[in-house]
Amino acid sequence: MSDTLTPMPDACRVCGSRVGLLAAADAGWTCARCGWRLGDAPDADLPRPVVEVVYYLRFDERVKIGTSSRPRQRLAAIRHDELLAFEPGGRRLEQERHREFADLREGGEWFTLAGALTAHIATLRAAASDPWALHDGWLGDAYRRASS
Length: 148
Ligand SMILES: [Zn+2]
Description:
alpha+beta, five-stranded antiparallel beta sheet, binds zinc ion
């Protein structure tokens, strides 16, 4: 018997999703978005796990490549049209990408959306079309690691 995606009675404590998988065997809910078990509260004594991401943020024909461990807050403060992708990594990966796409650099962290950068983003998006679902999955993993 396969799992069925269904609305959950409560929102996931990790990512806020209301859709889960109900496994017949243990009759428990698992969040469809981040994989957290419904009812397992993240331990309030644990610090919030840090999930660093490199983000690709489009504004017009340009892309900002930056990094943050709090992308929701960070992205809210940057004028942009669209979040194109996330990649797991911090400052080191960000700087690696800045070097990789140096030919396309317009200034600061902004790059022309063209050529190798377009191809790189397409690869990331092929693996996961919804960057936030991907991010919340990593957050769920980090919570599980922190509490085990
Ligand atoms: Zn969740």
